[in-house]
Amino acid sequence: MSRYILAIDQGTTSTRCILFDHDNRLVASSQREHRQFFPQPGWVEHDPLEIWANTR
After folding, report:
1. Of 5, 6, 10, 17, which has the most beta carbons under 10 Å away?
2. Secondary structure of residue 52 in the 3-state scheme
C-alpha cells in the first residue's frame, strides 16, 4: 500500500490541498476559492461553512 502526505493550506482567498508521496514528489493538488466579506473598512470575514465545504 502506498503512503502519502496531504497538506491543507488555508489562505485568505482560497483553500488548497496538495498530495505528496514519501519521496516528496507532487502527486495531486486542488484549489478552491472562497468569498470574502468586507463588513467595514479594514475588516475581512469568511463563511466557515463555505471553507469547510471547500476542504471536503
Report:
1. 17
2. helix
Give the whole-angstrom CA distance, residue 16 versus residue 26. Answer: 13
Residue type, 36: Q
Residues 6+ apart with CB under 8 A from 10: 51, 55
Write out pLDDT tens, residues 1-52.
Answer: 789 999 999 999 999 999 999 999 999 999 999 999 999 999 999 999 999 9
**Grid cell 463555505 — which residue?**
50
Instruction: Report how many domains make up the chain.
Output: 1
Measure the CA–CA gap between 36 and 45, rounded to whole angstroms.
6
